[in-house]
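Customer escalation, tier 2.

The customer says the design service returned an amino acid string that "doesn't look like it belongs to this structure." They asked us to rerun it and document both sides in this ticket. The original structure tokens are below, unchanged.
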């Protein structure tokens, strides 16, 4: 028995708020977490739809039923199976998607890349492969990957602001886990600004909107 791989064309799905054009001042590309769907995740950003902001929410390429054999259709960005192929596939997908919209917007439009939960690793793995011209990388309720050698990418990362957002009642980000994550970031030489908010494993719209407007 021999295992083979074959790159094929896929149809990806995504949702947007706002219309690209010369009026756009801010662009937010946000990757959802494990077991979510872009159609529902995009509602978290409805408060940013102000006429000058474009929100792009891509959906992971791997869809499945949340209930097993039936139920809500959700998506994932990757698993540990053939992970390098999956990272390459979604990185190519995200670059193609973003480049298409950047071409329709002013060159000086501010670009923020945001990942939620599993989407945090997705954003970072894509960023260090493709170097999208973002001003901010935001990691919300998730971890930055520890298995990446960040030193070759410091030129890119040092030119961007990195932020983490953590709910004070997030059951997945326990005090021990957070302490490990802070130490890992320090060991990797990554400078990250941590924000804590009142809430669980979710995006709190008020917190996001206040940061997005002020930053």
């Amino acid at each position: 028995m021999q295992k083979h791989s074959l790159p094929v064309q896929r149809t990806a799905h995504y949702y947007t708020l706002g219309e690209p054009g010369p009026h756009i001042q801010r662009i937010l590309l946000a990757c959802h977490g494990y077991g979510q769907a872009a159609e529902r995740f995009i509602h978290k950003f409805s408060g940013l739809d102000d006429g000058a902001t474009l929100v792009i929410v891509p959906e992971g390429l791997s869809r499945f039923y949340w209930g097993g054999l039936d139920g809500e259709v959700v998506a994932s960005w990757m698993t540990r199976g053939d992970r390098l192929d999956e990272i390459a596939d979604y990185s190519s997908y995200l670059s193609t998607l973003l480049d298409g919209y950047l071409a329709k917007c002013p060159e000086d439009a501010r670009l923020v890349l945001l990942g939620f939960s599993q989407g945090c690793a997705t954003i970072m793995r894509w960023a260090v492969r493709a170097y999208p011209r973002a001003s901010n990388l935001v990691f919300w309720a998730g971890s930055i990957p520890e298995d990446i050698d960040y030193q070759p990418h410091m030129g890119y990362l040092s030119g961007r602001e990195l932020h983490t957002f953590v709910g004070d009642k997030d059951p997945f980000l326990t005090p021990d886990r957070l302490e490990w994550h802070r130490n890992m970031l320090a060991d990797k030489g990554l400078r990250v600004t941590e924000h804590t908010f009142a809430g669980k494993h979710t995006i709190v719209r008020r917190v996001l909107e206040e940061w997005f407007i002020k930053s």
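Tier 2 assessment: The sequence is consistent with the input. The chain is about 30% helix and 25% strand. The chain has one domain: 25-214. Sent an explanation to the customer and offered a walkthrough call.
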